[in-house]
Amino acid sequence: MALRNIRTMGEDVLRKKSKPVDEVNDRIRTLVKDMIETMYEADGVGLAAPQVGILKRVVVIDVGEGPVALINPEIIHSEGSYIDVEGCLSVPGEQGEVERPFKLTVKALNENGEEVIYNAEELFARAVCHELDHLDGVLFVDKVIK
Asked: How many domains are contained in the chain?
């Protein structure tokens, strides 16, 4: 495993749309492991592949229940909403209030290429939305409530 450099606001890669992963192979598994290690080192709860310069639809999240890898994630249901403060490893020192769904269901592949479905609430749901935004070139600062 290796630490990856976290890209920061202003770098083009953060504003580009990520491509789907065609095959979950050893390169993707290494990316997932590196992203988890990088996320922990940076004291984050989530990290998306574009944040480490890779335009692939891969995110990792840990809201205190162990790391979750989501490859080609897709939100298939959401409900409710609430506003809370967010920050981002790619936008150091900035925070702002963002409205997100209270609950959601996300479908993805895990690092073994198996389909997984998570029913997420509160912080986990917020982290899923935040990281999936990165896959489409959207940063939380774009959604801050003025």
From this structure: 1
Burial class (CB in 10 A: 0-12, 13-18, 19+), 60: buried
**pLDDT tens digits, 16-32:** 999 999 999 999 999 99
Considering the domain boundaries, does residue 93 fall inside one? yes
Residues 1 and 67: their CA atoms lie apart, in Å, by 15
pLDDT at position 56: 98
Other beta carbons within 10 Å of 119 = 11
Phi, psi of 5 (to 5 degrees): -75, 130
Give a three-class secondary structure readout of 16-74: CCCECCCCCCHHHHHHHHHHHHHHHHCCCCEEEHHHHCCCECEEEECCCCCCEEEEEEE
Range of the domain at 121: 12-142
| Catalytic machinery residues | 131
Q: Is residue 57 part of a domain?
A: yes
Handedness of CA 51, 55, 57, 58 (dihedral sign): negative
pTM for this model (two decimals):
0.96
| Residue 4, domain member (yes or no) | no
Largest CA distance in the chain: 43
